Amino acid sequence: MATAHSKSAARIMIAPAVFVLLVWMLIPLCMTLYFSFADYRPMRGVFDAWIGFDNYIRFFTSSSFLSSLMTTLWMVGSILLITITGGVAMALLLDQPMFGQGVVRILVIAPFFIMPTVSALVWKNMFFNVDNGLFSYAYKFFGLQPFDFLSQAPLFSIVVIVAWQWLPFATLILLTAVQSLDSEQLEAAEMDGAPALSRFRFIILPHLSRAITVVILIQTIFLLSIFAEIFVTTNGAFGTRTLTYLVYQRVLESQNVGLGSAGGIVAVILANIVAIFLMRIVGKNLDN
Amino acid sequence: MSRAITPQKKIMWTAFAWAFGLLMFFPILWTFLTSFKTEAVAIADPPVWLFFDWTLENYADVQARSNYPKALMNSIAIAVGSTFLGILIAVPAAWAMAFVPGNRTKDVLLWMLSTKMLPAVGVLYPLVLLAKWLGVMDSRILLIVVLMLINLPIIVWMLYTYFREIPGEILEAARMDGAGLKAEILYVLTPMALPGIASTVLLNIILAWNEAFWTILLTTVDAAPLTAFIASFSAPEGLFYAKLSAASMLAVAPILIMGWFSQKQLVRGLTFGAVK
After folding, report:
1. Which residues lie below 8 Å from residue A88, measured CB to CB, with a gap of 6+?
2. Do the domain assignments include residue A149?
3. CB distance from B7 to chain A under 8 Å?
4. Are residues B155 and B247 in the same domain?
5. Which of A132, A228, A244 sits opposite B227 (nearest CB)?
6. C or N terminus of chain A, fewer CB within 10 Å?
7. Does residue B276 form part of some domain?
8. Average pLDDT rounded to a whole number, residues B149-155
């Protein structure tokens, strides 16, 4: 039984965590908000504390904003498509009876634990490199002209790298969901003569729908802030500049803090839209 | 599954699954093999698979590179430091929310999670500015604090879900037997909570070890961990595939092993209990 005494003790125990997160949320975010209305270019010694919405107007009307938004959408969208369809297929495959299931699962999950800079550089050099990459050797083996992935299809290359990292995550979550499926229901459907495709369409997929939604939301939040993979492969060149990368460049490379901060606020708002949906699902689950 | 499985079917599924598993694992396997080759063999066309003179010289070379041991120590300090600092703050909070839930507990938990959704670029410049102002730019303590803060919501959340599985009756029984708050925590809760805390520690060391936004942008030389050390290979000179592979293996091997042990916790930790 929670007494008044234990309640106040509980409050004291929660306080440090709430306090540090509150400080972490509020101070930097307020500073960004403040800078986003200022003309602040530290390299040139410019600081004008209030220029209204000029930064936002400049950010939205610049051609780099629209292209970075499209790049972000393409990148996140295609990675989601690959990881969700691949993840459902892999999860169903891993749920089948087989020899060495545990080992296969370990093999499939491994890429998720690889440091982003490592996976990006390994793919960039040992697979995509036009002179010495394995893909070039394969092209030559089949008598084809080697293809320079990172300069000819840079967005595709980054999508491959990041999808490889996140497919294990989707697989693992969806496998957990598949395993909670009531097998009697499937057996009954099978005995009633439902073909495999209808069993998938009408029993498995509806059962997975919530897990799929969760995977989409969580991945979207992480994918919106992809950084290292772009940093070590193309450094934002060749149309791989996402919104996150554009803000990074404005803030740290060209040191236009005002403009970059406006972009940062835009990124925060976009991420929050996704977060609201995720919170709803998580919140509902807390009640049961 | 109670359905009869024909051996042929099982062999077919085994072949399929192993093929996909090996395909996913192949880049790691290839990096592993390349790390034992000489640079010339590493770029041989057609590729050499297993039959070459295995050498450890790449590992020796990487170890000898002046900044590798420092990067390793930084990675360990930052990953372990931020995790334990996080645990220190999160255990009391999660304990209180799990055992003395109030009307606002759910809101607090969800609010904590929402801080995890904050995009890093949104606070990039203020953080750089604050770090410079406090004189902690490129220091381990800065990275420990920042990574603790970005992972704190996950730590609190995981601990909360573990603590909630501890039946409250046990606490009541202990209280009836006259155990005070201190005895309750020390002798009743701690032993029951330890496995959950251990899993949380493991997953968060992995997340902190692989974090590659703040660790790259807030460090230059002194506090640069392995993520930044590996990123320095993005501007290569001469032949370097074998050395890159050796450095990569050194950076990922311990985490890969820890990761395999914490697969199950991964689902719990990264879906915030939304998938069971």
Report:
1. A174, A208, A212
2. yes
3. no
4. yes
5. A228
6. C
7. no
8. 92
